[in-house]
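Example A, followed by Example B.
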Amino acid sequence: MSGKPRLTYLNGRGRMESIRWLLAAAGVEFEEVYLETKEQYDKLIKDGFLLFQQVPLVEIDGMKMVQTRAIMSYIAGKHNLYGKDLKERALIDMYVEGISDLMQMILMFPFSPPDAKEKNLESIKERATNRYFPVFEKVLKQHGQDFLVGNKFSWADVQLIEAILAVEEKVPAVLSGFPQLQAFKTKMSNMPTIKKFLQPGSPRKPPPDAHYVETVLNVFKK
């Protein structure tokens, strides 16, 4: 073992992408193993690697971790991205949970039936502009600081920049009414670790295409 975290998932975004983002933002290099067949997935279950028969699987510090939220809490805590006390951690948790609700819609979008795509895209746009982004615009404006919690870079900031860029891919002008978020996006995108992750050739995955959707359906078919 090289000592680097080892990520097992498909060669695409899915539930692993937020983990890749968080590791990259923390400046941690990692290795990846890609599932391409149902047999590979079944073997992981048979070998007892997947506690709840689900990926993502992250091997880190001698542990085989599953469940996205648990993995990310561990990484955030280890790399000092989880606030200075319980109150800051509670705020980070609230913001992360909210962003996760929006990301869940984006995650499921590629699997929408063709006749539902337009409606689902409209839902993403409506939720982002009316429910989620106004919250973060207000937070940044009220405390006048660069980061969401405690004026220190945290897991919540990483989740938010990932969500902003993911929504912008589908709704390019989504930040037009959110000047604070525009400034936040610029600042985050220029942080050295995130800037590196946004460069071509990084472990960041492209938007899901038809091949990715087909692979997901094949690997996880019942």
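Example B, a separate protein, is given below in the same form.
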Amino acid sequence: SDVGPQKDRVVTEEEWLQKWELGNIGFHKEQVHPLLQKHLDLLLNGRSGLRIFFPLCGKAVEMKWLADMGHNVVGVEVSEQALKEFFSEHSLPYCEEPVPEISGGKLFQSTSGNISLYCCSIYDLSSTIVGKFDGVWDRGALVAVNPCDRQRYVSLMINLMEKNSSYLLVTVSYDPNKHKGPPFYVPESEVQSLFG
């Protein structure tokens, strides 16, 4: 359970973009995640029409799944390719516009208006730009964030959450001495200390 070998590992934005360009996206799943299906009631808590945030969203199929249920989905992803593939693979018309507050940032929004995907670094976002959320589905974000950036990431997530929001987090458990990540090993004790 010693995360020593991964502590200083850094994956650059360019490396993530290259993964998408080369199709090296084993983290992408074609089906709705079984843990989201199983724990959906925890995320929704009997509420409808929620604003749900997908950090480092890629082209997650769960975004359309939740939007089809009547929720508003907002995601952020550094790869424009991933966002365009999301819309094309679901045959969803969208428009693209710049985000004035973010240098080089773009917003891809479904014409139905219920899916808004930001193309930028997650650290360029703030609640003044994207608002606050009733729920967060973190399937591969915390475990993809560089270990040195975890505190910054969690602080942003907490800032983006409404008072009574729900946060569903999926991590992976393995021996960090045998795999350099990502996904990175985030032990439960660290999850507890990060989120408080």
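On Example B: The chain has eight helices and seven strands.
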